[in-house]
Design a protein that fits this description.
The protein is mostly helical and 204 residues long. The protein is built from 6 helices and 2 strands, in the order ββαααααα. The relative contact order is 0.14.
């Protein structure tokens, strides 16, 4: 049977999960010290699980979601997920821009050399993985891109299953069904776009 679970640590999409659920209080998030309540901890842990990212990164992301909640008219948790997808998409766009201009000899020579240098560094670099000893920590950049594409396909499948599971439980009768679908479709579109962007990066 095929494994459709979301893997840990896809490049640019997540880092290895911490092995223990242990929060040290107070905790520092973006140079500010916070005392975390139980609700914040649970939401951060759930965010960590859903996105396959480190719990500390999830806590930082959830705090951003709290700040953006009113502006986005979403719960802090959902706002955090949408922020995550937006950031990943923007990051990949920047990387694609680097490789595109590195291959374009019609731009000014000095700019061309800068882009070529950055592209070369990306190609040669070893990808850092937050979890020490994690399998794949020494993969090259492009190999990690390929594994990230696999990660995205599994992520997309997991979101499909989430919709089917909610539908099976009568979720379409709930008041939040339309909002749930809208947010799910936004995530899917982002995932498909990022998968396509990764394939373009590899082909540069």
């Amino acid at each position: 049977m095929a494994d459709h679970s979301i893997p840990q640590g896809g490049l640019l999409f997540g880092r290895g999960l911490t092995e223990t659920r242990c929060w040290t209080e107070p905790i520092e998030l973006d140079d500010t010290i916070y005392n975390l309540n139980d609700e914040f901890k649970q939401e951060s842990i759930q965010l960590s699980d859903d996105l396959a990212i480190d719990e500390l990164e999830a806590a930082k992301l959830f705090r951003k979601g709290m700040e953006a909640s009113a502006r986005r008219d979403r719960s802090p948790f959902t706002a955090a997920i949408l922020i995550y997808h937006t950031r990943q998409q923007q990051l990949l766009n920047l990387i694609l821009t680097v490789f595109t201009y590195a291959a374009d000899d019609t731009i000014p020579a000095d700019c061309h050399e800068v882009f070529k240098d950055v592209a070369a560094r990306l190609i040669q670099m070893k990808v850092r993985v937050a979890t020490a000893g994690m399998k794949g920590a020494n993969e090259t950049y492009f190999r990690k891109c390929l594994s990230s594409m696999e990660y995205l396909r599994k992520f997309h499948y997991a979101l499909q299953q989430k919709e089917l599971n909610k539908l099976a439980l009568g979720g379409d009768k709930n008041d939040d069904w339309d909002e749930f679908l809208e947010d799910l479709h936004l995530q899917r579109r982002s995932i498909m776009y990022r998968h396509e962007t990764l394939s373009l990066i590899i082909c540069q």
